[in-house]
C-alpha cells in the first residue's frame, strides 16, 4: 500500500516509521527544509514541497496513493490537503489530524476527510477508558455514514457477561470488531464468550451509541 503523509514533523515521522515496519510504501511531504530529515526515516521517500499546491501533489503522484494522511500542525493545511487528495486525485482513504478541537466539526466528508483524528480527544478517551468501566468511550469519528469507533470495558454486572458473541442481539448499525482481553487481541467469533474486563471495540452509528451502552453496561432483571 502506498501512503503519502503531509507533514514531516514528529507526528508524521512516527506514523511513517510504523507504516514502513508493516511493509507499506511511504512518501513524506513537507515545505520546510528543516523538516526534511532523511536520516530519521531513511526507508521513506521524501519530497520538499508545499502539499497545498497542485503542482506539488502532481510531483508526489498522489493519484497512485491508497491513503493520504494530513498530519501537519496546521488545521487549515490539513483540510486543504484532504480536500485536494479526495477531489483532485480520488484517493480512496484520507485521514486528517485535528490540532484544535474547536475545528473538529470541519473535518468531514465535505472536506474530503474519511477519518478525523483529534489528539486531545484520543488522550481524554484513554483517560476515560482507564477509569470508566461500563461507560462507552468514543475514540474516532468516521465521516461517511455518521459512524464512530467506540470502546467499552465490560463490567462484571453486564447483561452480556458470560454470553457468547453470537447469542447477543446487537443494536442495528453496530459491529463488534475486536475484543481486547489482557494482552490478547481476539477476533469476535460467534462462539467467543464475553468476559468481565474485556475491552470491546465497535463501529457504531452515533444514533445507536446510547442503546449499545445500555445493552452492555446494565444487567437486566428477570421478569
UniProtKB/TrEMBL annotation:
Domain RCK C-terminal as annotated: residue spans: 137-218
For this protein, the record's InterPro entries field holds: K_uptake_TrkA, NAD(P)-bd_dom_sf, RCK_C, RCK_C_sf, RCK_N, Trk_Ktr_HKT_K-transport
Q: Which domain of life is it from?
A: Bacteria
Domain RCK N-terminal: residue ranges: 1-117
Recite the UniProt keywords alphabetically.
Ion transport, NAD, Potassium, Potassium transport, Transport
Does the record's keyword annotation contain Transport?
yes
Can you name this protein? Trk system potassium uptake protein TrkA
Organism (species)? Streptomyces camponoticapitis
Amino acid at each position: 500500500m502506498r501512503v503519502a503523509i503531509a507533514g514531516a514533523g514528529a507526528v508524521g515521522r512516527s506514523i511513517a516509521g510504523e507504516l514502513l515496519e508493516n511493509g507499506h510504501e511511504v512518501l513524506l511531504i513537507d515545505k520546510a527544509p528543516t523538516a526534511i530529515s532523511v536520516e530519521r526515516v531513511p526507508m521513506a521517500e521524501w519530497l520538499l514541497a508545499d502539499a497545498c499546491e497542485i503542482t506539488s501533489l502532481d510531483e508526489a503522484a498522489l493519484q497512485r496513493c491508497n491513503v493520504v494522511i494530513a498530519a501537519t500542525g496546521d488545521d487549515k493545511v490539513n483540510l486543504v490537503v484532504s480536500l485536494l487528495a479526495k477531489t483532485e486525485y480520488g484517493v480512496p482513504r484520507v485521514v486528517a489530524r485535528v490540532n484544535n478541537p474547536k475545528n473538529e466539526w470541519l473535518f468531514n466528508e465535505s472536506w474530503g476527510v474519511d477519518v478525523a483524528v483529534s489528539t486531545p480527544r484520543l488522550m481524554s478517551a484513554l483517560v476515560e477508558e482507564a477509569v470508566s468501566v461500563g461507560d462507552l468511550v468514543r475514540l474516532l469519528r468516521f465521516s461517511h455514514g455518521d459512524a464512530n469507533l467506540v470502546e467499552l470495558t465490560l463490567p462484571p454486572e453486564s447483561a452480556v457477561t458470560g454470553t457468547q458473541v453470537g447469542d447477543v442481539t446487537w443494536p442495528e448499525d453496530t459491529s463488534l470488531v475486536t475484543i481486547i482481553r489482557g494482552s490478547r487481541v481476539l477476533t469476535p467469533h460467534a462462539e467467543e464468550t464475553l468476559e468481565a474486563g474485556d475491552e470491546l471495540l465497535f463501529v457504531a452509528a452515533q444514533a445507536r451509541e446510547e442503546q449499545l451502552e445500555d445493552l452492555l453496561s446494565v444487567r437486566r432483571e428477570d421478569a
